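User: For my dataset I need records formatted as: sequence, then structure tokens, nothing else. Please produce one.
Assistant:
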Amino acid sequence: MGKLHEQMKADLTLKGYSEHTHEAYLRYLRGFAKHYMRSPAEMGEEEIRAFLLHLAQEQKADPYLQKAYISALKFFYRTTLGRPAVVANIPNPKLPKRMPVVLSEEEVLAIFEAICYIKHKAMIATTYGAGLRISEVCSLRKSDVDSQRMRMLIHGKGKKERYCLLSPMILELLREYYRKVRPKGDWLFPGRNPQKHLSRGAIHKALKKAVKKVEIKKKVSMHALRHSFATHLLEHGTDIRFVQVLLGHASIRSTMRYTHVSNAALSRIESPWDRLLKTKKQGGQPCKGPK
């Protein structure tokens, strides 16, 4: 698979896919080839369908993982091999609608205070304080921080750029981090090699360690900080259209799901049961059952 591996890698680069997508798509293609111990170029729709059934029925793979495999295989057969007919009739699995994990403001602060290393503290605070994706906070460059206009340039999903909030306290924390660490190179949060930014795995590991330390039972990821940012803004009365812009959502529908988890919004809704009891206490007559 060496030649095909390099060819697909080149195609992903030419299409402008992220490094994370490069790694994932190539890993899924290798998994498909390993299952049959054959080159993917020798296989077609029949083998793909059988493999996907194996994932769903025998491996009990999550629908999101199934979809990821399908996306990788569709890219490979359409773009790298130029055989789009092979995957034309491969259906995507129906994805479950999951409510986003949202932390309380107290939980966010507890996680922040449980982290010792100033670089990780700065990344966690920036992720929550600006509502960033993990890829966005990792790929911040020093030049992206505009302290004059109090904003940051974000290199978002799909190569889309946007500006986000730079609060005075986030700026103060970033300056403290810079004074103590003096990061080399262009990246704001470099890895051990200053030519590369800190990996997703490193900041995930730091977050999970802090979550465990403060004994939060929720399934917390870096994306939960972004969910919490949006939910807390809505709870404090921020117009949803501004939240949409800050998150970089192309459609308001993507932002609307945070209205379903906003405690402030839910707390304004009165249960019909409560209304019945209030009516009774105020002298109303309860309904009589059948005689």
